[in-house]
Amino acid sequence: MSEQLWNLFNGDYRRNCLSWAHSPHNPVIPASGDSWRSVWVANPDVIAFGGKQLLYYRGNGIQPNTDGQRHDRLGVAEILEVTRDKIRLRELNGGEPIVDVGGPDAFDGKDVLDPSAVVFRDRVFVYYSAIGAGPDCVGLAVSRDGVSFEKVGSIMEGRAPAAIVKDGQIYMIYQLLQNDGYRLYLSRSTDGIHFEPVSDRPIFAGTPGSWDALSIVTARLMKDGDAFYMLYGGSSYLADEPDFFGLARSADLLNWESHPGNPIFGCGAMGQEDGGAIWFPALIETEREFVLLYEGSRGKYSWDISSQICMASIPKA
Questions:
Q1: With contact defined as beta carbons under 8 Å apart, do 198 and 141 qualify?
Q2: pLDDT at res. 292
Q3: From 170's CA, which of 108, 115, 163, 188 has a CA 20 to 30 Å away?
Q4: Helix ranges restricted to H, 205-314
Q5: Cis? peptide before 27, omega within 30° of 0
């Protein structure tokens, strides 16, 4: 499906961005309730497992009978139906978090966010950004059913993991801060727990003087035949406030070719629920369209951050 998506776009970024229809129902998955997902719902990631299409995401709010503070936590829902502008879900685990923050001194004691789920050895491995004691790092939780998870612990320094299986190993792209912006790095693991760098240099960075010159963030990986594809956020002005998504492809996850018509997707109109910034592009294929789930904010960090899950679609032909 990813090759077909690649071929939809030409060399004109304006035409590419305008080819998408942003859902009039955005945010399609809003913050709700009065507890752990009452403030934000964000960071979508989608996998197929156990005959179901599962959506992993981040919620932010105050969970009853805890420390009374807002934290990011992870949840999961089953996707029951997707159309070009709507999604229907069934919350799993009773609508409660599947991965919670740790204790005050834990590596993930403040926030658990940015899930990346991958099926490996008949289990679901969820990697996530862990904020707590020590440097920001990637944590891991593992499940046999995709719903009930056990934490493994801290895996490596970094943020916003994107995991995929290649040749029986898990490869992970993650971001590290460098010179005021993020760059993407690549590591691999034979057991999903112990990772080694594939390269000690960034594998992907922006183009000087372009839309992604300063920072590359929140990548999502897909495989189509022998090729790998990546959707990612880019910014020319702040480290983590992208307003466009780009598309790239690779044969080995190490060497990447950017689409000549990048960026291929942009924020919604000013004042819309996704008009301020966008992150984490998760692609879903339907019979007639490619549907993009992503985190959108109507405003900026400095004045109206409002992260919720939005949707856009593009016809296949």
A1: no
A2: 98
A3: 108
A4: none
A5: yes
> What is the domain range of residue 220?
2-315
The number of folded domains in the chain is 1
Q: Are 52 and 146 in contact (CB under 8 A)?
A: yes
Q: In what order do the strands lie in the sheet with 87-91?
A: 40-49, 52-61, 71-82, 87-91
Q: Give helix then strand counts, H and E, for the chain.
A: 2, 21
**CATH code at 74?**
2.115.10.20
Q: Count the Cβ atoms, other than its own, within 10 Å of residue 300.
A: 15
Sort 155 into a burial class: Cβ within 10 Å, 0-12 / 13-18 / 19+.
Answer: buried
Q: Kindly report the pTM of this predicted structure.
A: 0.97
End-to-end C-alpha distance for the chain, whole angstroms: 13
The first and second tokens of residue 205, run together, are 């960075």
User: Mean pLDDT per 10-residue run, the chain (317 residues)?
Assistant: 92 98 98 97 98 98 95 98 97 98 97 98 98 97 98 98 98 95 98 97 95 98 96 96 98 98 97 97 97 97 95 95
Q: What is the rounded CA–CA span in Å between residue 192 and residue 170?
A: 6
pLDDT tens digits, 109-167:
999 999 999 999 999 999 999 999 999 999 999 999 999 999 999 999 999 999 999 99
Residue environment code for 92-112, b if the CB has 16+ CB neighbours within 10 A, otherwise e: beebebbbbbbeeebbbbbbb
| Token pair 């709700």: residue | 32
- How confident is the model at residue 179, as a pLDDT? 87
How far apart CA 308 and CA 8 sit, in angstroms, is: 27
The answer to whether the beta carbons of residues 261 and 248 sit under 8 Å apart is no
